[in-house]
Design goal:
Mean pLDDT: 87
Low-confidence stretches: 278-287, 339-348
Structural class: alpha/beta
Distance between the termini: 27 Å
CATH topology of the largest domain: Rossmann fold
Largest sheet: 9 strands, mixed
Order of helices and strands: HHHHEEEHEHEHEHEHEHEHHHHEE
CATH class of the largest domain: Alpha Beta
Radius of gyration: 20 Å
Length: 348
């Protein structure tokens, strides 16, 4: 049974440094340790964690502000916590939200912030069709494709949800304050994975993108450059086995289609794309490329040959690593810039 003390403990965990946070979250979710037991010295040692007691007072203040501002929070084990997010090796310990959380019948629509009017119109129309079929529409609240998708769902009388990379009290981008407000007033919501007052950061966008994927039945990429947040979201969909749909016509979506994404030529094909049995078999799994790359710059073909993985899978995994900054690409060769995920390590 969950109590305010449980919620406060989860909140406090977001306010302290934890060296082994993924291990801690796994143990909490799987019931190996209780929130109360985290306040012991043994737990602090096991997880490389700062003492939790001083953070509990700050957690109480955070919860007071959440209630005062009309927001809500949920933590693992509570009825409203989206269980699909637990598929992540690093699920959110706390979810802050305004309005409500999306249903299991949701799709994520993403794309470029600087998309053409044609592609924004397509995003708008796809969102309208999705809403008409009873799907909630999730996106990131940004300019371009995101905004078009949110507005399409709203205008169709459906529900739409902004997953933000900042605290709920920080609207990003600021010019979308009315849009964020409308998502809530029309029956949807705004969802955050960080405390109030937190500014957006690159890694928070990457984490947010993965949560959008896990909350959805399908991810639809409308327009994307070869290096973009939309591709990061697409590769997360491949990794977790979530249906990936792409609109032809931009470099990024063309790459995704070549890797097995389901094409969506017209918004009216939404339902068939969502139920098509020709879903990509390229579901990414973490692969041990780090050892190969430590030898020096390598081509995707060489890594494919040495690892035994299909070239398309190698390219997908490497491009995700490029998006996350752990690998760089120059003249067709890939090289390490930071630690790469191995078979025994998973990203957030």
């Amino acid at each position: 049974m969950f109590t305010d003390e449980n919620v406060l403990t989860y909140l406090a965990l977001q306010l302290v440094n934890v060296k082994h946070r993924r291990l801690l979250m796994r143990d909490l979710v799987e019931g190996f340790i209780t929130p109360r037991e985290l306040q012991t010295a043994q737990a602090a040692y096991r997880y490389g964690m700062e003492e939790l007691a001083p953070a509990l007072e700050r957690a109480r203040e955070e919860l007071r502000r959440v209630v005062e501002m009309g927001f809500s929070v949920t933590v693992p084990g509570m009825p409203d916590y989206p269980r699909s997010l637990l598929k992540s090796p690093n699920p959110p310990g706390v979810i802050w939200y305004s309005g409500i959380l999306p249903s299991l019948q949701s799709v994520t629509i993403v794309g470029s912030r600087s998309a053409s009017r044609i592609h924004m119109d397509k995003a708008y129309e796809i969102a309208q069709v999705a809403a008409a079929h009873g799907y909630d529409v999730i996106s990131g609240g940004a300019y371009g494709i995101d905004a078009a998708a949110h507005r399409g769902a709203i205008d169709a009388g459906g529900k739409t949800f902004v997953f933000t990379a900042s605290g709920l009290d920080i609207i990003y981008p600021q010019r979308h304050e009315d849009l964020f407000s409308k998502t809530v007033s029309t029956g949807g919501g705004v969802t955050s994975f960080v405390p109030l007052g937190t500014n957006p950061a690159k890694w928070r966008f990457i984490y947010r993108n993965k949560m959008m994927v896990l909350a959805s039945r399908a991810v639809i990429v409308v327009a994307a450059a070869l290096k973009s947040g939309a591709l990061s979201t697409a590769y997360a969909a491949m990794k977790y086995g979530i249906r990936l749909i792409a609109i032809p016509g931009t470099p990024g979506t063309s790459l995704l289609l070549s890797q097995g994404a389901i094409p969506l030529e017209e918004p009216t094909q939404f339902e068939s794309a969502l139920t098509s049995t020709s879903i990509s078999s390229i579901w990414l799994r973490p692969v041990p490329y780090e050892a190969i790359l430590r030898e020096g710059p390598k081509s995707a073909e060489e890594i494919s040959e040495r690892s035994g993985d299909p070239l398309a899978q190698v390219l997908s995994e490497l491009m995700q690593a490029v998006m996350e900054g752990t690998v760089s690409r120059t003249a067709g060769l890939f090289m390490l810039t930071g630690p790469v995920v191995s078979k025994h390590q998973h990203d957030v």
